[in-house]
Design brief:
The complex is a heterotrimer of chains A (303), B (236) and C (290). Chain A is an all-alpha fold and 303 residues long. Chain A has a domain of 202 residues. A two-stranded antiparallel sheet of chain A has the order 1-2. In chain A, helix 2 crosses helix 11 and helix 2 packs across helix 12. The longest helix of chain A has 26 residues. Chain B is α/β, with parallel strands linked by helices and 236 residues long. Chain B has two domains: 131 residues, 3-Layer(aba) Sandwich (Rossmann fold), CATH 3.40.50; 75 residues, no CATH class. Chain B is built from eleven helices and ten strands. In chain B, helix 3 runs parallel beside helix 7. Chain C has 290 residues and is mostly helical. Chain C has one domain. Helices cover 74% and strands 3% of the residues of chain C. In chain C, strands 1-2 form a two-stranded antiparallel ribbon. In chain C, a hairpin with a 2-residue loop joins strand 1 and strand 2. In chain C, helix 1 packs parallel to helix 5. The chains are: A mainly alpha (303), B alpha/beta (236), C mainly alpha (290). Chains in contact: A-C, B-C. At the A-C interface, helix 5 and helix 13 of A face helix 4, helix 10 and helix 12 of C.
Chain lengths: 303, 236, 290
């Protein structure tokens, strides 16, 4: 009960604060946090819950961005374009994502990475230019709108993942993560649940891509397909706590804030520091920050 | 030669051996028998250093073996012929034998040991350059034993050699083992599911059930005992 | 026709390079199931090492290998003892995953450290023979290309010799087939893993030399890791011959695609081949079915 109240409190805070504090810098930060937490959630559903480590999420992020951008610039309103983008990511997943389950274990990771690279190269060749924002769309552009959209999608995502974690489907996914052969042996159709997991995951990634395309004024078409968008959610989910509901959000907050801190002060070093942080997390904090908090809570209880 | 004293072994939370004690005197051939899952292989794995006991000690000629890594145990003069053979399938027969004689002092004796192995298992000499994975079951078992002999062991541990082999092949291999034991005075501890076969060749035997030693005695005496007869030999 | 042969010759030269690139990665993966995606960064660092050796010490790049290779062996030793040995105790699936993640962190760290230290400027080692070519059947083959192929052959033959004719080399093969059984032979498996890893890193020297003679900057780390992974998958686990053939296959496929559709999709073709093999023949063209 207490946790629900805290969550509600935080929610109210993030809804109301921007109305009061009209700080553009703050908006940008919060939009980024929402964006990254949505993308991290997307990776988490497939990787953290279902155990299928994908390095190909840039593809679905990019697909969502591309579709949204095309529709929005053509005059479709953004609240139609956004789900359309998500849907396009799902369709793409059904073409290249589901078949990639044929690659087992670590092959899946490098195979999805290869797929992401293929798409990146293809987009770079087919659409080498810049996506310019049109005048009508520029008129619609409002940081506050974008923020609330991102926040809305972010909260919806988190609720969906929370519901998933408590459902039978979620349970099946976790069992596949823990021991796929055992799960298969007790009768779970692992392929079916992996497909479900990837569907949800890519749908969310598509939403994230759409938000990116909405948020970024002008960018090269290939940017949302860049591999950073594959690696960042993985980093974030790990730092926050893979396989948890809150982890991606915590990780996103840490990620964006640290990035800001380092970028303004240290420039290039931030990627280096992330590399170090990442290694430390993998070696010593396999459950991420959420794990640290749980340990802390547990030690408090035993006292 | 080998002294196992009050050993407890567990895999994580699951305990496999409870207070197991046994000994093997120099020059003896001892059999440890019991049904599937009784803990026989666990004991050999522990003696050979692949598993560490939670409690108790294992000494080989007075030197502690339970604290040593597997490769150090080989230095002490203990060679394991593992359950399932565990040959290096993509390496040739000769290479497998060479790996058996990897440790320093065995390398010096390589030609000598090879001759001995060819004597005991002539078929191996004919298959020297064949990949171990292409041999028949019986040949693989012979190679596994030959490989164990290459390190010039004082104590040879043989884990479930009868698994998957035709009875006549198993009988012949046990005859050869007895020969190895007699002619070169190599102490042998065999672990077997086939109770009759093992107790027929062994000098002494131990019976293990559910991780505990339940009986001990001379091979022939055990074979004749009523408990063994009814529990393992389906007689009476 | 001459154009086709020309492009094919470049395919062979590149293929030899790709084989060298994948060699260290394949060795380490075969022995202990570590997927070291930082291997590309290590090659990049080796290129820089060769570059500095040539610049400051005025060595010929191929001579500088004598200095660089042992240095990188030590670097590999330190990397393993300091970092990678911590995941030895995990079981197979976890080892691959954790080694992937950790080496990914290393990849980020090394490539960015290099950019910070040495800028993103492109470098190249030029020698007296850099521009020279030899004409054969109407095909122009650069001296450096020939040297690369010869180097690749020598290195791979040397590694093959090491693995099949020395006790330690055979111990390495034994450990990669059955770690536990190798221990029962008296082989110190931890030491074998350590030396294998250090050797894998030292092997980065050779593709490093070849890359140094072309142009390079810190970003090549990612490209090289890419190529190494593709060749690894084509070759299959535990197959040394496979590495050479895998490299040549990749080089040939790229060359043919350049001939047919131009160079824009050169990378894509290799990646498509990669995915195809992963899906339908994951044990690779030379590897054993595990």
């Amino acid at each position: 009960m207490k946790r629900a109240l805290i969550a509600l409190g935080i929610l109210l805070l993030v809804i109301i604060v921007p109305l009061v504090v009209q700080n553009e810098y703050l908006f940008n930060l919060m939009i980024l946090i929402c964006l990254y937490s949505i993308l991290a959630h997307s990776w988490n559903v497939l990787g953290g819950f279902c155990g299928q480590i994908s390095l190909g999420h840039a593809t679905f992020f990019g697909a969502g961005a591309l579709t949204f951008r095309y529709l929005w610039l053509s005059g479709v309103s953004y609240y139609v374009a956004l789900p359309a983008g998500a849907l396009s990511a799902l369709i793409l997943a059904s073409i290249i994502g589901f078949p990639s389950f044929k690659m087992k274990g670590h092959y899946f990771a490098i195979g999805t990475l290869a797929l992401a690279m293929i798409l990146l190269h293809t987009v770079q060749n087919l659409l080498p230019g810049v996506s310019f924002i049109t005048q009508e769309c520029l008129d619609q552009y409002n940081l506050l709108t974008i923020y609330y959209l991102a926040l809305g999608v972010g909260v919806a995502t988190m609720l969906a993942v929370w519901a998933l974690s408590r459902s039978k489907i979620g349970l099946a996914m976790v069992s596949i993560r823990d021991d796929e052969d055992a799960a298969e042996a007790i009768g779970i159709n692992t392929f079916k649940y992996k497909v479900i997991s990837m569907s949800i995951s890519t749908l969310i990634a598509g939403f994230a891509g759409g938000i990116f395309a909405f948020y970024c004024g002008t960018y090269y078409y290939y940017v949302p397909f860049e591999l950073g968008w594959s690696f960042d959610p993985l980093l974030i989910a790990f730092i926050g706590g893979a396989g948890t509901v809150v982890g991606p959000v915590v990780g996103a907050v840490v990620f964006v804030l640290l990035k800001e801190l380092f970028a303004t002060h240290l420039g290039q070093v931030n990627v280096l520091i992330f590399g170090i942080v990442f290694i430390i997390v993998v070696l010593f904090l396999p459950k991420g920050m959420v794990g640290v908090v749980t340990l802390f809570r547990r030690s408090k209880k035993t006292r | 030669m080998l002294e196992v004293h009050d050993v407890d072994v567990a895999y994580g939370d699951i305990q496999a051996l409870w207070g197991v004690s046994l000994n093997v005197q120099k020059g003896e051939m001892v059999a440890l028998v019991g049904s599937n899952g009784a803990g026989k292989s666990t004991l050999l794995r522990t003696v050979s250093g692949a598993q560490k006991p939670r409690k108790g000690t294992i000494t080989v000629e007075g030197i502690r073996a339970d604290t040593a890594d597997a490769h150090k145990v080989v230095d002490l003069g203990v060679a394991l012929v593992p359950e399932g053979r565990r040959l290096f399938r993509d390496m040739t027969v000769l290479e497998n034998l060479e790996m058996g004689g990897y440790i320093g002092r065995a390398r010096k004796l390589k030609e000598d040991k090879l001759e001995w192995v060819y004597q005991m298992f002539p078929i191996l000499k004919q298959r020297l350059n064949q990949l171990a994975g292409t041999l028949s079951g019986g040949e693989q078992q012979m190679l596994a034993i030959g490989r164990g002999l290459m390190s010039d062991p004082k104590l040879l541990l043989v884990d479930e050699l009868s698994l998957g082999l035709a009875p006549i092949i198993v009988k012949n291999i046990y005859k050869t083992l007895k020969e190895i034991n007699r002619s070169r005075n190599v102490t042998i501890l065999v672990v077997e599911q086939n109770v009759r076969l093992a107790l027929e060749v062994a000098d002494r035997g131990y019976v293990i059930e559910n991780g505990r030693i339940t009986m001990e005695g001379k091979g022939q005496d055990l074979l004749a005992s009523d408990e063994i007869k009814s529990a393992y030999l389906a007689i009476g | 026709m001459a154009l086709f042969l020309q492009i094919l010759s470049y395919g062979v030269i590149n293929g030899a390079l790709y084989g060298l690139v994948a060699l260290g990665l394949s060795l380490v993966f075969g022995v202990m199931n570590y997927l070291n995606v930082a291997h590309g960064a290590l090659i990049m660092l080796a290129s820089y090492a060769v570059f500095w050796a040539c610049y400051y010490l005025k060595f010929d790049p191929f001579v500088s290998m004598i200095l660089v290779a042992p240095t990188f062996f030590v670097i590999g030793w330190i990397l393993f003892q300091g970092l990678f040995q911590r995941i030895l105790r995990f079981e197979e699936g976890e080892k691959i995953k954790n080694s992937l993640l950790i080496s990914f962190g290393i990849l980020l760290i090394f490539s960015n450290a290099a950019t910070m230290l040495w800028t993103a400027d492109e470098r190249a080692v030029t020698t007296d023979y850099t521009g020279k070519v030899i004409e054969l059947l109407g095909v122009r083959i650069p001296y450096i290309g020939i040297a690369s192929v010869v180097l690749a052959i020598i290195v791979i033959v040397a590694v093959h010799f090491f693995l099949t004719r020395t006790y330690f080399g055979k111990a390495i093969r034994a450990v990669s087939q059955d770690n536990e059984a190798a221990g029962w032979m008296g082989i110190n498996t931890k030491m074998v893993c350590l030396v294998s890893f250090a050797l894998g890193v030292a092997l980065a020297t050779f593709p490093g030399v070849v890359i140094a003679l072309q142009t390079f900057n810190p970003i090549v780390s990612f490209d090289l890791t890419n190529k190494a992974l593709i060749v690894l998958v084509l070759a299959g686990v535990g197959s040394l011959k496979g590495v050479l053939f895998g490299g040549l296959l990749l080089g040939a496929v790229e060359a043919v695609s350049v001939f047919l559709v131009g160079s824009a999709y050169r990378e894509v073709v290799g990646l498509l081949l990669f995915v195809f093999v992963l899906m339908f023949r994951p044990q690779g063209l030379g590897g054993r079915k595990s």
